[in-house]
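[Meeting: bench + compute handoff]

Bench side (C.D.) handed over the final construct sequence. Compute side (W.E.) agreed to return the predicted structure before the next meeting so the bench team could plan truncations. Sequence as handed over:
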Amino acid sequence: MRSKATNILQFGVLLTGIIYITIGLLYGFSPILFANIFGIEVNPDWYNLIKYDTFTSPLYHFSRVFALLMAVAGLSMILPLFDPLKYRGMIYYNGILFPLVAAPVLLVNGLTYDHLILTICGVLLLVLFFFVGFGLMITRRQAKMGQE
C-alpha cells in the first residue's frame, strides 16, 4: 500500500510527464500549430524561408528534435509511477534539474521581450519544479528506509 506522500509524488511525476509529452509532441510535430495556439501569427512563406537560411534552418530543426526529446523524457516518467523508489534519480533529473535550469531562462526572456509563450512555459516548469520538489521532500524519509 502506498502512502499519501508517495501519491503526491506520483501525481507530480504524472503531471510532469503529461506536460512534457504535450509540449514536446505539439511543438516537435507542428511548430506552426504550437505558435497558433498562443496567438502568434506565422507568415505562410516563413517555412519556405527556413529552408534556405543557413542559421535559421538548423536552429528550427534542432528545436524540433529537442522538443521531441522532451516528449521522450515525458514518456520515461512512466517508470517512476510503478517504482518511485527505484527511479528516484530520474525524478530528480526530469522533475527538478531540468525545470530548475529551464524555467529561469524561459521566464527571464519571456518577461524581458514580452513573449507570452515563453512566460507560460517558464511558469509551468517552475510549478512542476516546486510540486515535484515538495513530493520528493515529503517522501525523503520513506526513501531512506527503502519504502515507497
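W.E. noted at the follow-up: The chain is about 80% helix and 0% strand. C.D. will use this when planning the next construct.
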